[in-house]
Design goal:
This protein is of the alpha/beta class. It is built from 12 helices and 15 strands. Bound molecules: D-malate (MLT).
Length: 403
């Protein structure tokens, strides 16, 4: 191919030879395998994509809203910049039921967590960041793209994959990414741990970006919002998504909470984000927001609870199968993910290749979530039950034959 070179300077982020995004790289390898083995019956426990359909009440609301656009009298153009009032009120109600008081103008409707976890950094310049590892690869990429000085705080099997603020060396304020229940380890932060992070953020004058994408999988005393911890409104933004809970991986809807108390460098973050969003996006379409509001209605939530139960049972099946094969595993109790230590000297990448070749089962290599996870693999419980059971049996077979 003939190339043309212009005189623009590319950002440092793209200058260094960056491989594909983790799940895009895995998808590429699956495609390659499929090409070479067209009859392979591959089961994916890789990317965390859902398998249950949307709740009927959600689809009805989605379709009804779409049809309203057909009539002149009910047609709507641009949505409000930060979300329709009906959805923001539904989100406030959702938090109220978790004993968290928010106001409508602290909510920003989004098209899901991933973009927000990236874009929130656009309001800061020349900043430090703390990323716990292993973690969702988006955090590290978002920081690299913004030129942040990044400190990695390792979590490991020794501390049950729960990172603690005592380990942070960065002096002064930093943006701190936290995710609980964690992607990829599936472990959830006990209240005391979350409290210690909030205290750390308050005393070091840091800002937590709390990724709550898996909150609906948590139970018992595990906080389902960072605002369940006192003081968090003074130091944390929360990013949430309907992707895994209500099955919106394709529909795309979530929200970001920016409490009015948050001020950085003399600027109210809620105001800064309003300004940024109004410039950068025209928001989320009306039918999607109508579907999201239905997902947060009583009936919608009932359906979500059942879906969460289903996925947790898948994760339990995977974990118990692996444990019965002598594999060290984490997660599955408050998360749809199982995090397994790869057996017999495999690292995560070798195990991914081994499982694909010998069992036609896709796992996600742990190294994609951070160096400390390179000997681990993540398995998703979000696939269909029947496929999950077959995948578990196939994994048992290859693991038993390993001995
Ligand atoms: C995952 O962890 O599986 C993600 O939600 C998928 C993604 O980021 O594309």
């Amino acid at each position: 191919m003939k190339e043309s070179t212009n005189i623009l300077k590319i950002s440092d982020y793209f200058k260094c030879k960056r491989g594909d995004y983790l799940f895009a790289a895995v998808a590429k390898e699956i495609e390659k395998y499929k090409k070479a083995n067209p009859n392979a019956d591959i089961i994916s426990l890789g990317v965390g994509d859902v398998s249950l359909p949307l709740a009927p009440i959600v689809c009805d609301a989605y379709a009804k809203a779409a049809l309203e656009l057909k009539e002149k009298s009910t047609f709507r153009g641009y949505p409000p910049y930060y979300g329709h009032d009906f959805l923001k009120s539904a989100i406030v109600g959702y938090y109220k039921d978790k004993s968290v008081d928010l106001s409508d103008d602290e909510i920003f409707v989004s098209d899901g967590a991933k973009r927000e976890l990236n874009d929130l950094l656009t309001v800061f310049s020349d900043f430090d960041a703390v990323i716990t590892s292993p973690s969702y690869p988006v955090y590290a990429d978002a920081c690299a793209a913004r030129g942040a000085r990044v400190e990695i705080v390792e979590a490991s099997a020794e501390n049950g994959f729960i990172p603690l603020p005592e380990r942070v060396k960065t002096k002064g304020g930093a943006v701190v990414y936290l995710c609980s229940p964690s992607n990829p380890t599936g472990t959830a932060y006990p209240r005391e741990v979350l409290k210690s992070w909030v205290e750390f953020a308050l005393t070091s004058r840091s800002l937590i970006i709390f990724d709550a994408a898996y909150e609906s999988f948590a139970s018992g005393d595990i906080p389902r919002s960072i605002y369940a911890v006192e003081g968090a409104k003074m130091c944390a933004i929360e990013v949430c998504s309907l992707s895994k809970s209500a099955g919106f991986t394709g529909v795309r809807c979530g929200w970001t909470v920016i409490p009015k108390e948050l001020v950085s460098g003399g600027v109210r973050l809620n105001d800064a984000w309003k300004r940024r969003q109004a410039t950068a996006t025209n928001g989320v379409s009306y039918p999607v927001q109508a579907a999201a509001a239905a997902a947060l209605s009583d009936k919608g939530r009932e359906y979500t609870r059942e879906a969460v139960k289903y996925y947790l049972e898948n994760a339990r099946i995977l974990k118990s199968t692996l444990v019965s094969c002598g594999i060290e595993c984490y997660g599955a109790e408050n998360s749809p993910y199982v995090f397994m230590k790869c057996p017999n000297g495999f690292d995560g990448q070798n195990f991914f290749e081994f499982a694909l070749k010998n069992a036609q089962v896709v796992v996600t290599p742990g190294g994609g979530f951070g160096e400390s996870a390179k000997n681990y693999a993540r398995l998703s419980g979000l696939n269909d039950r029947g496929k999950t059971v077959v995948a578990a049996e196939r994994l048992r077979r290859i693991l038993d034959n390993q001995e």
